[in-house]
Structures are given as C-alpha cells and as structure tokens.
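Subject: sequence -> structure tokens, single chain

Hey, anyone have a minute? Need the predicted structure for the following. Not urgent.
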Amino acid sequence: MTPLTTADFQAARAIAHPYIHRTPILPSGTLSELTGANILLKAELFQRTGSYKIRGPLNVLSKMSAENKARGIICASAGNHAQGVAYAARVHKVPVTVVMSVNAPAAKVNATRGYGATVIQCGDIWDDAYAHSREIQAERGLTYIHPFDDLQLIAGQGGVGLEISEDVPNVDYVIVPIGGGGLISGVAMAIKAAHPNAKVIGVESIGAPAMSRSVAEGKRVVLESVTSIIDGLVVRQVGENTLWVVQNFVDDIVLVDDTDVFDSVVWLMERSKLVAEGAAAATVAALRTGKLTIPSGKTAVCVLSGGNLKLEHVRQLRWN
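Reply:
Had a minute. Here:
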C-alpha cells in the first residue's frame, strides 16, 4: 500500500473537527521519576464516546456515497468502534447495525444503543462478532465499516499522532496499544511523517499477540486461541494494511500481561486521577514493568486510547 501523508491526516481531522475534542497532553511526574525520562500522556480517554475510535468513522462516512449510506451500515466491535460508528452514523443520519460479542461491557452496549444503533450480540470475542456481521451484511446488502483495516478509518485515527506531533515537537518515543492495529497504523505514519527519527512502540497483550506473531512470521497469522480479557487488545488476526504499516513504520512491539495492565489501571486512578480502560493502560504498564525502557532524558508519549473501563475485570484481577 501507499503510506498516508500528513495532508491525509490533516484532511481527516478537519472533517472530524466539529464533532471531536482535541484531547490534552498531560505530564506524568511519577512516571517520569520512575523511568528517568520525560513521560507524557495523550488523554484520548477524554474524547467523545470515551475513546479515539470516533475519529475514523467520521472520516469514513464523510466519504461514503449516498447509495452506500442509503443501504445502511454495519460493523463488528468489542465496544469502542461500536460507539464511534454509532455516533458518526447519527451525525450523518445513516441507519446502523452493530454486532458485539456477548461479553462486551454493558456500558459500551448501552452507549451504542443510546447513539441510535441496533445492537446484535454474538460470539465470545471480536472475531466471532465479525464473522456474524459479515453474514448479516451479505443477507441485507449493508455497507461495511471495518474497525481497523480501512485506510480512510486509519487516516481518521491518525489524528491522534498528528496532534502529538504538533503538541510535542521534541517527541522521541510514542507508545501505542495494539489490537487490530488501526490506531498504531495511523499514529505511526503521522508521527514518522513529522518526526522521522522518533520511535513508535506498540504494546500488545501477551495473551493475544496477533501482531507480533505476524511481524515475526512475515505474514498474517490466525491465533488458535486468546487468553486476554482486555477487549481492546484482543483479535485473532490483524489486518493486511495494518500489518504492512507496522512492518514499515513501527520500531518495536512489547508484550504485557493482563494483571500488570489492570494494576496500571488502578495506578492511573490512584496517582493521576485518570480512569483508563485496559488497552489504554497497557502503554503505562509497559513502562511500569520495565518491558519498555526509555533512555534517560528522552521524551515519550503514552497514548491512553480510551476510558470505557469494565470495572468487573479490575475487581477480579486486583482484589480476588
């Protein structure tokens, strides 16, 4: 594929601008002291719908033909993409069906319905919901919005990286969670276009290492099973486009386990007064556990991708 450019990311952000927040970059004195580096937090947990996932669908729908909109749209989601698509569909007055896994957080399901979507629940993880959504799409002739492998969607998500590049001109490292790879693809291309010497590091669940396995094998792999319960980090197979971007624009991927991630969820509450969901806190977990080391004096930005936290998981892992 041809890499997206700064102009692509700027155009996508301009389209989304009336409907999104420009989220803040927050300093973390405690993480900076712990690591010896200057650690900043890109707080997408303050974004509308509670995560960065609103950015991409707004760009996709703005470029969709009237014919495709009239058919109605459909997507599959663990939760945040569902809310982003449902919100964008409401903006564009397009009927939307969302297929979510049966264990998707109730708050995400209810919020998606609240934006006007029809929600169908099927399967245990995103891949199961995705397969069912494709069946519905074929039956009803709906237009599909992929949660991570659509280039227009990636251009929208790259607004996160564009804002980091503008707000932190001396950035040395950007640390990004990986599920299917849409966020890190947009962020990596946006960052490298503005700061070619900056390093982009992905953080993946040790219980669902689809991207790191695919990079290691040089092709998309399908995980036979996943053990992570962090919905934003769990897919069995990453995208074709997202794998290519990670291979060409991402410097490294580190793996963290669920317990360390949820410890970091609680740590962020205690020390930073921020409510981050598991996928978001994974970037902080990578630093706190030493899985990722930032050289002394360098500036690193952790992307806190969302704040739609399933509290039951924190209780289970932290206090049981």
